[in-house]
């Protein structure tokens, strides 16, 4: 067990938004219930060998039936916001066409419950669970999916918009592109390598069209949650630097440049289908109200070669890829094996401000967290403490950060890892679905209490 970190945390702005995150597929369960349609992840998990422990998300944490209990936990934690996702296939079982009133009704009740608890609802419209009917027709490789996504955004905004003032269109389109369509580690399990790039463009187009649909419903407070992290070259050699630049392009610039600058990094647009210039104009035409960053770890990257590793965290990197991912030494590791490097969060945020200047809207850290086992999760406390101090250093350096969401409220279905990785502040007993707050939950509750101005009874 590690020594408890020093307290208290430095003081954050009084209106700083504190929250916890989850996603529909990872927690809801109730897959076949109340008219929910199948999603790409239901089909993917049913294929033998896809999920490490052979599990699926058909029950998950049972949140669909326990949402009131989970909202009570969020209230007790003392955060001001809850980031969840809406399952597209619960609202539109075929991805388009007939709306499933029962599915939409679930999110209506969830939002009501949050509002009654004084917790701001922050829905994400797409967190990886593409309706299976659309996936079978090509999913995000098809331009049509972007238009269906905007129609779905309109349906959700019409129902929830009176109580929601913070929206997230997409979660981590980079992972959907790279892991889902490029390397086949995630649904839909395609290994198209650079042939996956249209999926990136169509998600961005879907984002742009959804922003139009949301604004037409009077919504503001619109953002996106992109995964980013500093990329470091394995050495000073030109080859390693070139490989690291390329990886940086894939992870950091492929999605941020179109959104914030209205253009793709050099050489990308030529590889994309459709009227790319017009699409880019649309993608960047309505500036984001805020930019969400999911941060977990930096990446050390070198040139490929006969002695370079050919896999990263169990994901086979094909030899055609112009980079190899190396292990970062000298830092503690999470149960997932991810290096714990809080300073890299400061570096990431300051580098974004340097790269995008005035084009960068206020930033919200929409995910940050770690997997560890056990209820007395002192390592998670140290992780959160270190990252919140790193975040505060970015604020002190002048980066306009407005909020921070822990991934995750509770243990959940960690995609291809099944239930083997536990990211929650709350432990889930997968036999009984009992919820037990971990030591980190109690630590964060106390830390947030200390953030409140003296005499204030409200949330920060
Ligand atoms: O669980 C995921 C989440 O769905 C997206 N961001 C990273 C998390 C941890 O891997």
From TrEMBL:
Bilayer-spanning residue ranges: none
UniProt cross-references to SUPFAM superfamilies, sorted A to Z: (Trans)glycosidases
Catalytic activity: Hydrolysis of terminal, non-reducing beta-D-glucosyl residues with release of beta-D-glucose
Keywords: Carbohydrate metabolism, Cellulose degradation, Glycosidase, Hydrolase, Polysaccharide degradation
EC number: 3.2.1.21
Pfam families: Glyco_hydro_1
Keyword Ribosomal protein: no
Origin superkingdom: Bacteria
Enzyme class of the recorded protein, top EC level: hydrolase
Family matches, as NCBIfam families: BGL
Entry similarity comment: Belongs to the glycosyl hydrolase 1 family.
Name of the protein: Beta-glucosidase
Native source species: Streptomyces chryseus
Lineage: Bacteria, Bacillati, Actinomycetota, Actinomycetes, Kitasatosporales
């Amino acid at each position: 067990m590690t020594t408890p970190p020093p307290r208290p945390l430095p003081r954050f702005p009084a209106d700083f938004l504190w929250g916890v995150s989850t996603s529909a597929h990872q927690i809801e369960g109730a897959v076949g219930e109340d008219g929910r349609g199948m999603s790409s992840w239901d089909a993917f998990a049913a294929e033998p060998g896809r999920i490490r422990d052979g599990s699926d998300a058909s029950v998950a944490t049972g949140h669909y039936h326990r949402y009131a209990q989970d909202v009570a936990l969020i209230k007790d934690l003392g955060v001001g916001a809850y980031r969840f996702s809406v399952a597209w296939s619960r609202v539109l079982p075929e991805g388009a066409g007939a709306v499933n009133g029962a599915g939409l009704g679930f999110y209506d009740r969830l939002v009501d419950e949050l509002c009654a608890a004084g917790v701001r609802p922050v829905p994400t419209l797409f967190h990886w669970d593409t309706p299976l009917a659309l996936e079978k027709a090509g999913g995000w490789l098809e331009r049509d999916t972007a238009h269906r996504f905007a129609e779905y955004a309109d349906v959700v905004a019409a129902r929830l918009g009176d109580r929601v003032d913070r929206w997230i269109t997409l979660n981590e389109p980079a992972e959907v592109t790279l892991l889902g369509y490029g390397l086949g580690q995630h649904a839909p399990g395609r290994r198209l390598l650079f042939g996956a790039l249209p999926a990136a463009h169509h998600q961005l187009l879907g984002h742009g069209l959804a922003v139009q649909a949301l604004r037409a419903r009077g919504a503001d407070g619109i953002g996106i949650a992109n995964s980013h992290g500093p990329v470091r070259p394995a050495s000073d050699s030109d080859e390693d630097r070139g490989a690291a630049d390329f990886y940086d392009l894939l992870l950091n610039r492929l999605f941020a440049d179109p959104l914030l600058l209205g253009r793709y990094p050099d050489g990308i647009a030529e590889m994309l289908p459709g009227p790319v210039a017009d699409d880019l104009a649309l993608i960047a035409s309505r500036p984001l109200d805020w930019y969400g960053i999911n941060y977990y770890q930096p990446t050390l990257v070198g040139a490929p070669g006969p002695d370079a590793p050919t896999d990263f965290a169990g994901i086979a990197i094909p030899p055609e890829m112009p980079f190899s991912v190396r292990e970062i030494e000298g830092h503690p590791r999470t149960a997932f094996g991810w290096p714990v490097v809080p300073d890299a969060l400061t570096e990431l945020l300051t580098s974004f401000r340097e790269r995008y200047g005035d084009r960068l809207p206020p930033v919200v850290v929409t995910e940050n967290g770690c997997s560890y086992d056990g209820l007395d999760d002192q390592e998670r406390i140290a992780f959160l403490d270190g990252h919140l101090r790193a975040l505060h250093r970015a604020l002190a350096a002048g980066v306009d950060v407005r909020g921070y969401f822990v991934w995750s409220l509770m243990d959940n279905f960690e995609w291809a890892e099944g239930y083997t990785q536990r990211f929650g502040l709350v432990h889930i007993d997968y036999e009984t679905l009992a919820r037990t707050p971990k030591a980190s939950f109690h630590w964060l509750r106390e830390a947030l209490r200390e953030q409140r101005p003296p005499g204030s009874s409200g949330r920060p």
